[in-house]
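Structure ticket #2291
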Amino acid sequence: MNNTTTIRKTLLTGLVIAMPLIVTIWVVSICFSILDENVSPIVKASVEWAVPDQYHFWVEIIAPVISLLIIFSVTYALGFLGSKVMGRQIIKGAEDLFVRIPLVRGVYSGTRQFLDTFSGSNQKAFSQVVLIEYPRKDIWALGFVTNETQGEVQDRTADRVVSVFLPTTPNPTSGFLLFIPKNDLVVMHMSVDDAFRMIISGGVLAPKTYVCPSPKEQPME
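Resolution: structure written out below.
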């Protein structure tokens, strides 16, 4: 391997490691900036009247800090509330109110479903990693079993099929929903996290090789 290839591979690996952190910081900073822009004016208006004029410059410094503390406290309180039975009932009541508002309903429902699907709290989603022949025979792609297919889709297919989510690279939040016969799936031993890392990195971050039976001999769970 020549120096150019080594440098390129090292830079690509560094980029793959850095990008999730950069995107996370970027998204969090945008969210907090939006909240801070709306909370800080309220904090300033509430504090300035009690502070002498000669100390008003301190308000400009302290107000954003107080705003972030308020945002953090409210977010933590919502999380704590959501972990309690009574709190979940209150939150459910608020959600029911949101989904009754025409314009808000679509945005809120879509965002909530997206977060539920890709969060660790949804234990049913992405239960297994599988290999499928896609987009043609002898070309393989990584997918995730999401559910046992039921209803009209299953009624109209001759074989027993399962729902498989086929994510795109490097953005696994988009992809395709495929209904595939169980016998056509190759069950993988790698974890869902390992599969996601491999997909996001474009195959650069491949998990270790597992000692396992022939793929075709592995039963679906």
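Closing remark: The two ends are 42 Å apart (CA to CA).
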